[in-house]
Amino acid sequence: MNIRPIKTEQDYTNTLSKIENLMNAKPNTAQMDELEVLTTLVEAYEEQHYKIEVPDPIEAIKFRMEQEGLKQKDLVSIVGSKSRVSEILNKKRKLTIKMIRNLHKQLHIPIESLFLDYKTNCA
Question: What is the CATH number assigned to the segment(s) 57-114?
Fold first, then answer.
């Protein structure tokens, strides 16, 4: 087993190729050990070089609405009036703690996503 740190994109590509060749490794073998070590190296490299940005709360709400096939009117019981829903989704008003709790409870949006700060579009 000749394992080196992943320092470049070429190292990353080569390691992914090695992993693909080892995918059918049997448990408790040297090949499986190599697969586990290479996978750990790739995960560390990806975490450092391919970070996924967390969406702001409004984008998280819109994403969940899209997933669930919801319309703005479907948020009235969660957020308030139709105009309040529009203000929230257009970033003209910030979410309140009560809204955040309701969105988390009813739409199962992670609470940590809803508490992130974001800019509003009002002067």
Answer: 1.10.260.40
